[in-house]
Amino acid sequence: MIIVTKKGVTPDQLDHIRDRIESLGLRTHMSQGEHRTIIGCVGDESLLQHIPLLSIPGVEAVHEVLKPYKLASQDFAAEPTEVALGDTCLGGRDVVVIAGPCSVEAPEMLMATAEHVRSAGARALRGGAFKPRSSPYSFQGMGEEGLKVLADVRSQSGLPVVTEVMDTRQVDLVASYADVLQIGARNMQNYSLLTEVGRLRRPVLLKRGMSATIKDLLLAAEYVMSQGNSKVILCERGIRTFTTATRNTFDLAAIPVLKRETHLPVVADPSHAGGRRHLVAPLSYAAIAAGADGLLIEVHPEPEMATSDGDQSLDFPEFEALMNGLRPFVAAAGRALASEPAVAIP
Ligand code: PEP
Ligand code: MN
């Protein structure tokens, strides 16, 4: 931690700042300038985490040297984390595509979607049973019935299922059916929910909140990991900005930033980022080129009949075309689609 003092800080104030830091068990290193003093705090920085340093008289700014997230940080892991997903895994060399409808609507549509996306190369099925809708009057999902449909389709198709958990009261119920628990953008900072899924040992797909910084996202992952669950998959799904041409703004740079900051797998959700069908393929290709470990894509047998997110859902031929178009990007990134033999890295 580095403390920068205000211009014209008095010797008494400097003594007080130094005493305060040293009384917490850290050492200080003073660097006196003409107008300001820079105080380096040496020792266990976590001892300063809960001290309101900016309110000490004479303090102008405080800069962290160490990352506030530890378990999620690249510095704390020797290897990238790989999260198992059925017979494949996310975060290794293979690119994993997770596809399916926004909402589980009926057994037939889910089964048809699972069969199609699997044969086109997807390795996991998505589908919401509990839906976080912006309006309370919109379809809220099938609830437990939807979870049962997901479990049936998993056993018939062999695809592991990813589904959202919205509330701490539903965690055990959703975990009894799902292979991966999705925490949605609106819940990324629901710390009770993060703590609750952290108690499980089931993978968690954590979506970036629409106004969350990358640090916020990594701190949310830290909540889950601090409870002992290290199986966290991060998801860039677009953030809110001033532009209205797309549903959200796909923060492409977040992918390489995250890959540098953390050892956790990173996937991209081009469906919610773009919000329109024609944007899903180009955003998918860009995500792979930027280093994403996987994609989360909405697919529906009849998008115009979808109960949620139809405008951004691909139909079956569109999904197949996307998967075909994806292969050169995957190969150029020195990777392979999870369904295929790995490409040799020179
Ligand atoms: C979803 O995956 O359907 C969803 C609701 O996503 P998000 O939380 O990113 O809006
Ligand atoms: Mn959706």
Radius of gyration: 23 Å
Question: What fraction of the residues are assigned to beta strands by DSSP?
Answer: 15-25%
Mean pLDDT rating:
95
Instruction: Please describe the biggest sheet, giving its number of strands, its sense, and whether it closes into a barrel.
Output: 8 strands, parallel, barrel
Small-molecule binders here are:
phosphoenolpyruvate, manganese (II) ion
Q: What topology emerges from the helices and strands here?
A:
Layout: E1 2-5, H1 11-23, E2 27-32, E3 37-42, E4 59-63, E5 83-85, E6 88-90, E7 94-100, H2 107-120, E8 124-126, H3 144-157, E9 161-164, H4 171-175, E10 180-183, H5 191-198, E11 204-207, H6 214-226, E12 232-236, H7 254-261, E13 266-268, H8 270-274, H9 277-289, E14 294-298, H10 316-332, E15 336-337
Parallel strand pairs: 7-8, 7-14, 7-15, 8-9, 9-10, 10-11, 11-12, 12-13, 13-14
Antiparallel strand pairs: 1-3, 1-4, 2-3, 5-6
Bound molecules: phosphoenolpyruvate (PEP) and manganese (II) ion.
What does this structure look like?
The chain is 32% helix and 18% strand. The protein has an eight-stranded parallel barrel with strand order 7-8-9-10-11-12-13-14, surrounded by six helices. A four-stranded antiparallel beta sheet has the order 2-3-1-4, covered by helices on one side. It is elongated and about 75 Å long. The chain has helices at 11-23, 107-120, 144-157, 171-175, 191-198, 214-226, 254-261, 270-274, 277-289, 316-332; strands at 2-5, 27-32, 37-42, 59-63, 83-85, 88-90, 94-100, 124-126, 161-164, 180-183, 204-207, 232-236, 266-268, 294-298, 336-337. The mean pLDDT is 95. With 346 residues, the protein is α/β, with parallel strands linked by helices. The chain contains ten helices and 15 strands. Phosphoenolpyruvate is lined by residues 102, 128, 132, 184-186, 207, 237, 272.
